[in-house]
Specification:
- This protein is an all-alpha fold.
- The model has no long low-confidence stretch (mean pLDDT 92).
């Protein structure tokens, strides 16, 4: 995502320059730098070394994410015209990680689930160019998360481990939001 000068200025009020560089490096290069992963995780409130999380910790993040997002979507009041979108998100959550080894496919599914969920909650405004700035104004924590999500490339040629970290970082935020 190309950042506007205004968005970059707003982000810098909430996130230190080293973390901003970590997000930019993580989302724009093919290499996986564990320092970048840990810096992004710290931005989302994680203490410790996210990059060396155990399999049990990762499964807990996935479970908490799915449970929290499912509950949020179920509790979201929608217009009749959005019922199909709501049901679609709940279905996508149910099938996410049917194959826990396919992180590339899970990455694409995750981004789709997040985009649809945000659209369900914020409407078409979430698709506007200035939604990132808007989200930072109404809730800086969510705005930083959205900035991270929108910084992720829709198509990437990454290692399985990098896809895994990209998804788990986003899940961690939402599992604990």
């Amino acid at each position: 995502m190309a950042e506007s000068e205004q968005l970059a200025s707003m982000i810098s009020k909430f996130v230190d320059e080293n973390t901003i560089n970590s997000v930019r490096n993580f989302t724009s290069t093919d290499n996986l730098d564990n320092d970048d992963v840990d810096s992004i995780a710290k931005m989302f409130g994680y203490t410790g070394s996210f990059s060396s999380s155990s399999s049990d910790s990762k499964m807990k993040i996935i479970t908490n994410f799915k449970n929290n997002l499912r509950l949020l979507i179920q509790k979201t009041w929608v217009e009749k015209s959005d019922v199909i979108l709501k049901e679609g998100i709940l279905f996508q959550l149910d099938v996410l990680f049917k194959d826990t080894s396919d992180w590339k496919n899970s990455y694409k599914q995750f981004l789709d689930i997040i985009a649809n969920s945000v659209c369900l909650m914020f409407g078409q405004q979430s698709k506007s160019d200035d939604f990132s700035e808007y989200s930072l104004r109404i809730d800086p924590e969510f705005g930083i998360f959205w900035w991270y999500i929108k910084s992720l490339p829709t198509n990437a040629d990454w290692s399985c481990e990098k896809f895994e970290n990209a998804v788990l970082l986003g899940m961690y935020f939402l599992a604990n939001y």
